[in-house]
Every structure is written in C-alpha cells, then in structure tokens.
Amino acid sequence: MTPDIRPLTETDWPAVWPIIEDVIRAEETFPYDPAMSETVARGMWIERPPGLTVVAVLDGAVAGTAKMGANRPGPGSHVSTASFMVAAGSRGHGVGTALCRFALDWARRQGFASMQFNAVVETNSAAVTMYEREGFQIVGTVPRSFRHPAHGPVGLHVMYREFDRG
User: Fold this and answer.
1) Architecture of the CATH domain 4-162
2) For residue 81, what are the CA distances in angstroms to 47, 60, 103, 152, 154?
3) What is the mean pLDDT of residues 65-74?
4) Any idea where the domains of the chain sit in the sequence?
5) Best CA proximity match to 64, nearest among 26, 40, 32, 99
6) Which pTM value belongs to this model?
7) How far apart are CA 21 and CA 25, in angstroms?
8) Cys-Cys crosslink for 64: which of 95, 106, 112, 118, Cβ 3.0 to 4.6 Å?
9) DSSP letter at 28?
10) Ordered alpha helix ranges (H), 66-150
C-alpha cells in the first residue's frame, strides 16, 4: 500500500516527534545529537517556506516524515536536499521510497537542478540501496566521521542526483 503524503500540520507533531526521537536516540542513521530536546527537534525538522515538511500516512497513522529545501543558500541554492525518517514499525514497507520520490518530484517542480544528501551513514544499507535505486550516486565518503554504536567509526556518504535538463 502506498502512503498518502501531505504537508505536516500542527496536529501531526505529536506523532512525528516519537519517530524523530526514536531515530536520533538509536544513533545509527542520523548525525543528530541524541540528547536533542523536542523543542530543538521541532525547530530543526519543520522547514520554513520555501522548504517543506511532510508526513506519510498509512491506515490513518503517521508512518514517516520528510523535510526538503535548498541544500545551501546563495550560490548553492540551486541544489536541493531532503531528510527522511520512518517509524520503526513501518520500515521495509516502501514508506521511505515514497517519501524520497515525493521529495524528488517536489524539488524538480521547484526548479532545483539536483538533490544532494550530505551525510548518509555508510552502514545504513537500506537507505543507501534505496537512494541508489532512485538514481543517486555516492560522490564521496568522509571516512570514520560517524560514531556508530555497534560498528564504531564509519563513513558518511555524500550522495547526489542531477535532474534531467528538459
């Protein structure tokens, strides 16, 4: 089943925060401070226009969330970026793929030339495989730059996808 993806509303936050909290506290896939408070997380996750934060809803429940916008301001503002988090019970069911495809479509419609992910943990094989399937390439890896709780220091991939010039 494909999730319904829509802009995040104020009433979605109580369902989004536990997803973010679970992901950052695990310290396996995001280089965010595991002690981050809900207030800080909210300010970091909810994009201000022209960026966008969305939720993926399955069977009436928030199954994942994404945020997207410009990767950098000024001369780098033609490159987009996005981040995705999926609830533990919804992983492996296409929620992350649906969110990624949504973000790619959104970025193209906004006129971005490409999308770049700055810090994909190399041991997050599910994400790396999905991003490669969606057309991203690993353009570099910063070695030993993420302290994984089980694997020790591992690399962070920079992944990139250029959009068709049509």
Assistant:
1) 3-Layer(aba) Sandwich (3.40)
2) 12, 27, 9, 27, 22
3) 96
4) 4-162
5) 99
6) 0.96
7) 6
8) 95
9) S
10) 95-109, 125-133
With CA atoms as reference, report the closest residue to 22 among 84, 87, 92: 87
Res 88: pLDDT: 96
Q: What is the pLDDT of residue 145?
A: 97
- Cβ-count burial of 120 within 10 angstroms (0-12 exposed, 13-18 middle, 19+ buried)? buried
Distances (CA, A) of 32 to 58, 82, 112: 26, 15, 26
Burial of 100 (0-12, 13-18, 19+ CB in 10 A): buried
76 in Cβ contact with 107 (< 8 Å): no
Give CA–CA dist 42/4, Å, rounded: 22
Q: Tokens 């002690």 identify what position?
A: 35
At 91, the amino acid letter reads: R
pLDDT band for position 164 (cuts 50, 70, 90): confident
